[in-house]
Every structure is written in structure tokens, then in C-alpha cells.
Recover the amino acids of this structure.
């Protein structure tokens, strides 16, 4: 058995990932959080930014990884997504100032603030609507109130952040949850190891 | 901007090889070409550009560098060899009886957004088998692909086989619009069972058919996977016929000694839109993307007026070179040390150099130390 490299995010999916690995009796190294490459049994873990997980897996630097569907939609990475892990559920939505009566078709061009420019562009263009994407790195919710944009495309879990910032949900773009992803070449060239890991994660006999 | 930066900066996506790298690539190309020639394939050096229509097809259209010729016709730098070879087989070689066995080795140019393993300039080495018995041709082409990999010294590679007839057979008659078929193909390719369910939700597809499509995401493994597929897809005549074809090729390859190199992947439905039957990709553990691939395209030659069944494949020289380097193959043996030939009498020195060259010596002429 060769070593399988798994890319994991240190972000919001980390608690769910840890719980999953413990439940499946897979090793899960934590403790010294400054270490980014951690070997454990026949695995090697890479801890990277959540948006970078699909990149490591697509290039084959990692054989597998765990990434949110929202991130996969945004990066458009060519990876296999064989398991919906069920945790980290959220929605990618369009939201606008409450009571503003916003609908994108009323504007000649909708200004959209988002961390997901690819997803936002596809959503609006796919509906025949012109769009100007304002790419932000965070605190997207405050953009419409400050006049930077007419609406936002962002992830919501409970919708409380929207409410607190005076926004209301206009439409759901996509549902998201954590996915176990696999590199295309590893899937075939490391078939035994990858298949065993998939069986373990899906709760079958290992 | 005064443009001076262009004297040093290279445009993104292009490559340049020097000395040892170039020699390594030449060795790999020689190994692959010797396999092509050993199976009695004939070389074609097609034009670097042709009318853009030759390359039409949805997958390539958006990646083609096209330009307007002096006479107003739309031309394109070749983004792929297969269409060009099909055109030549149906045109200049139309009197040649089938089967035709043709190979090529050269660059194609594609506009590729930056992603793993994608350059704009790619060196492809491939062949096309046009006409003849289709099952035998499929098996032959896979055996040649295997020999190419063996000759380059690559290790642990796998031929992952699929058949587009399985997906097409399951989807045909469902009455889906093209957008839905594409969404479905995209999720099957990603082996995303949850995504497939989402795309199929609300459709009036029979439960058995919907479940079969979902199973495409998990039907991947060793050659024995094809037996399981036979059971599952028995209800669809098109899918069953595809599995029968696939199994015939797998059995032949297995008997020829390639059994442990084979994988079956019925979710492998992406790729160029002209494939109509067997499709396959070459994977190796030290490269995150495929080394090459190919498949059967029985409809393409009819477009050029000579309907012939056809199968072909190509290996990416750039990718093979990276793979072999990562697998730590034999280091390229440096060329023999050159001997310096010089002298104050230019004519005499040159005569001496020419004599030494006739014996095969590597000569560095003029002053300066030999490398």
C-alpha cells in the first residue's frame, strides 16, 4: 500500500471532517496547527485554504480531498466528486436590501458583490441578464448598504447574517455540502487504496 | 506601454525546450514513432493550418485560434490532428483502399484557460485506424498504446476503458433537452451520484433507467466491472450492445497479456464530441491528469464524404516527458564530448574538421574550449 495524500481545509469544514474521520476510525492528526503537511499511518495530510483544496487534487499533488460544493462550483476544477459527505450544508444565494424590490431584470446591468465571481457570472448570464461583478474577499453583506453593489451572491447557512445586514433572499443559486473529491488519475492508478477509502467513508465493510 | 516588454516576456501557454530537455523529448518521440511504424502505420505531416470548418465541433471551436486569410476565408491553426487526417483520408487519399493506418507527431495549438496539464501549445503523437474490422482495430490500437508506453519506460500506467454508447443508450429516448443532457454528462463525469439525482429530479424517466444512470457514477474498477455492467444495463438495447463491444475488446487484451493494465470506467463520457464507441484514457500515478487517450469516431469521416468507421488515440509528448521525469527514469546520457579543431590556417583546420566529422566524431570548430 502506497501513501495516499489527502488535502483538507483548515476552514469551516474542519470540525465536520474531524468527526467523520473519527467515526470511520481513520487517523486524524491535529494538535500542532502550524504543521501543514502531516503524515499519519498510510496517509499524508495537507492543510490548505479551502479554495485551494480542489487545486491540489486537480493537479494530483493530493490524491483526494474534502471541499465544499460551493468551492467546487467556483473553481470549476476537473475532479471526481464521488461522495456527498452531508455536513457543511449551506446555500449559495442572491440577496438584496430588504424592501428594495430588487429583481435583476429591472436593471440594465446588475452590480453584484461576491466572493464567487464565476458562480455569479454564470447565474446572471445564464438568465440573459447583464452583470457587473464586484469581487470581494469578505464582508460581502455590507456592500449593497454602502452602495458598492445592488445585490450579493454569497453562502448562507441560517440566513441570520442576511437579516442582520438588512438583506433578503432573492433566489437560491445552488445547494452546497462537503464533498469527498478524488484526482482522476489517482482514481485509476491507485485504485485499491482509493476504493478502500471510499468504502470506509461510505460506511461499508472496509 | 511602449511594447519593449514583448522583447523578453513570453505569451502565456507557450513553451521552449533547451539542450537536454529537447533531447529527452526527441528520445520519447522516437520510441513512440518506432511503435507506430512497427505496427505498419504510415506517417502523415498535415498542414499547420486549414479552413476553420475542418475543425468545427463544439469542444474544439472555443479553443481554436482562427484568423482571416488574404482571400477572406476563415482559417485556423490546427487544434487537433484527427479532423485533418480524416479530411486527408477522404480527399487526397480517397483512392487508397481501406483500412488506412496513419500516424502523426507534431504540435497543435489550443486556447486553454490556465489549469492542470493544459498548455496552449501541445505536442501530440497519435494514430488513426480508418476502415477495416472495428473490433480488431479497437484491440490493435489499445495494444499499440500499451507498446508505446512500454517503449518509453513509463511505469504503473493504466488504460481506463469506457464506451459512450452506455451513457447515450441510457439517455436516448428520455426526451431531455440538450442542456439537461449536458448537465447530466457533467455530473456523471464527476462521479457525483448526488448531482445526477438532482439533475434527474422531476424528470419522468423510469425508475430503473434513472437508477442505471446513477450507477454510471460508481461503475469503475478492474476489467471484471464489465460483467456487473452487463447485468445492470441489460434492459437497454443500445447500452447492452456497447457493453458487448467493450467486453470483446477487454477479453482480447486480457488474453494478449495486458489484463493487469486495464481498468473499466463507464463514467468516462467526456471528451471530444465526435466519439461514438469505445473511449479510453491513459493514467499513471505520478501525473494528476491523463497522459493521452482516444476512441472510436465512426461519424467523422462521413463529414468529409468518405464514410468509414475509425478509431485512434494520441499521447501527449509534454505529459509523457513530465511523467517519465517524475518516475525518475534513466537520466538522458549526455552526448559524447566534443573535440576542438582549430588552427591559424582556416582552410586546413576546416579540412581536418570535415575529416573528423566523417569518422563520426563530435567536433567543436574554431577557438574556445569544447563542452
Amino acid at each position: 500500500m502506497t501513501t495516499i495524500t489527502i488535502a483538507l481545509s483548515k476552514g469551516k469544514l474542519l470540525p465536520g471532517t474531524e468527526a467523520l474521520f473519527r467515526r470511520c476510525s481513520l487517523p486524524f492528526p491535529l494538535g500542532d496547527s502550524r504543521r501543514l503537511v502531516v503524515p499519519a499511518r498510510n496517509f499524508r495530510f495537507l492543510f490548505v485554504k479551502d479554495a485551494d483544496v480542489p487545486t491540489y487534487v486537480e493537479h494530483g499533488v493530493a490524491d483526494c480531498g474534502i471541499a465544499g460544493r460551493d468551492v467546487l462550483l467556483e473553481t470549476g476544477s476537473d475532479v471526481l466528486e464521488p461522495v456527498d459527505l452531508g455536513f457543511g450544508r449551506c446555500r449559495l444565494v442572491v440577496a438584496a436590501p430588504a424592501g428594495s424590490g430588487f429583481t435583476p431584470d429591472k436593471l440594465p446591468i446588475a452590480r453584484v458583490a461576491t466572493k464567487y465571481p464565476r458562480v455569479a457570472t454564470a447565474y446572471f448570464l445564464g438568465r440573459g441578464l447583464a452583470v457587473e461583478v464586484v469581487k470581494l474577499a469578505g464582508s460581502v453583506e455590507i456592500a449593497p448598504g454602502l452602495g458598492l453593489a445592488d445585490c450579493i451572491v454569497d453562502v448562507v447557512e441560517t440566513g441570520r447574517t442576511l437579516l442582520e445586514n438588512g438583506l433578503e433572499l432573492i433566489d437560491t443559486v445552488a445547494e452546497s455540502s462537503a464533498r469527498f473529491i478524488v484526482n482522476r488519475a489517482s482514481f485509476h492508478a491507485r485504485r485499491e487504496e482509493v476504493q478502500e477509502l471510499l468504502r470506509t467513508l461510505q460506511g461499508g465493510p472496509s | 506601454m511602449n511594447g519593449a516588454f514583448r522583447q523578453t516576456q513570453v505569451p502565456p501557454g507557450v513553451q521552449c525546450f533547451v539542450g537536454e530537455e529537447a533531447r529527452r523529448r526527441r528520445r520519447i518521440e522516437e520510441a513512440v514513432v518506432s511503435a507506430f511504424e512497427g505496427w505498419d502505420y504510415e506517417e502523415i505531416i498535415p498542414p499547420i493550418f486549414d479552413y476553420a470548418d475542418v475543425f468545427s465541433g463544439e469542444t474544439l471551436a472555443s479553443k481554436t485560434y482562427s484568423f482571416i486569410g488574404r482571400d477572406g476565408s476563415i482559417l485556423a491553426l490546427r487544434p487537433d490532428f484527427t479532423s485533418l487526417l480524416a479530411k486527408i483520408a477522404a480527399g487526397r487519399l480517397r483512392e487508397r483502399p481501406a483500412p488506412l493506418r496513419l500516424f502523426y507527431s507534431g504540435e497543435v495549438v489550443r486556447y486553454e484557460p490556465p489549469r492542470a496539464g493544459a498548455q496552449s501549445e501541445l505536442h501530440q503523437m497519435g494514430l488513426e485506424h480508418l476502415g477495416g474490422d472495428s473490433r480488431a482495430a479497437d484491440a490493435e490500437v489499445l495494444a499499440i498504446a500499451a507498446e508505446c508506453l512500454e517503449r518509453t519506460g513509463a511505469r504503473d500506467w493504466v488504460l481506463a476503458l469506457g464506451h459512450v454508447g452506455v451513457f447515450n443508450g441510457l439517455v436516448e429516448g428520455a426526451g431531455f433537452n440538450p442542456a439537461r443532457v449536458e448537465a447530466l454528462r457533467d455530473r456523471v463525469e464527476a462521479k457525483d451520484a448526488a448531482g445526477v439525482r438532482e439533475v434527474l429530479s422531476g424528470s419522468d424517466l423510469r425508475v430503473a433507467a434513472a437508477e442505471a444512470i446513477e450507477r454510471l457514477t460508481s461503475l469503475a474498477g478492474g476489467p471484471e466491472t464489465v460483467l456487473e455492467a452487463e447485468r445492470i444495463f441489460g434492459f437497454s438495447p443500445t447500452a447492452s450492445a456497447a457493453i458487448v463491444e467493450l467486453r470483446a475488446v477487454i477479453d482480447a487484451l486480457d488474453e494478449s497479456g495486458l489484463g493487469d493494465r486495464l481498468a473499466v470506467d463507464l463514467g468516462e463520457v467526456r471528451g471530444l464530441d465526435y466519439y461514438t464507441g469505445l473511449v479510453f484514457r491513459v493514467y499513471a500515478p505520478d501525473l494528476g491528469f491523463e497522459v493521452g487517450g482516444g476512441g472510436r469516431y465512426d461519424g467523422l469521416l462521413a463529414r468529409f464524404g468518405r464514410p468509414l468507421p475509425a478509431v485512434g488515440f494520441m499521447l501527449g509528448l509534454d505529459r509523457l516527458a513530465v511523467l517519465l521525469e517524475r518516475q525518475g527514469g534513466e537520466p538522458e546520457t549526455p552526448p559524447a564530448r566534443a573535440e576542438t579543431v582549430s588552427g591559424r590556417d582556416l582552410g586546413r583546420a576546416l579540412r581536418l574538421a570535415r575529416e573528423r566529422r566523417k569518422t563520426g566524431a563530435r567536433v567543436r570548430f574554431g577557438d574556445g574550449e569544447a563542452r
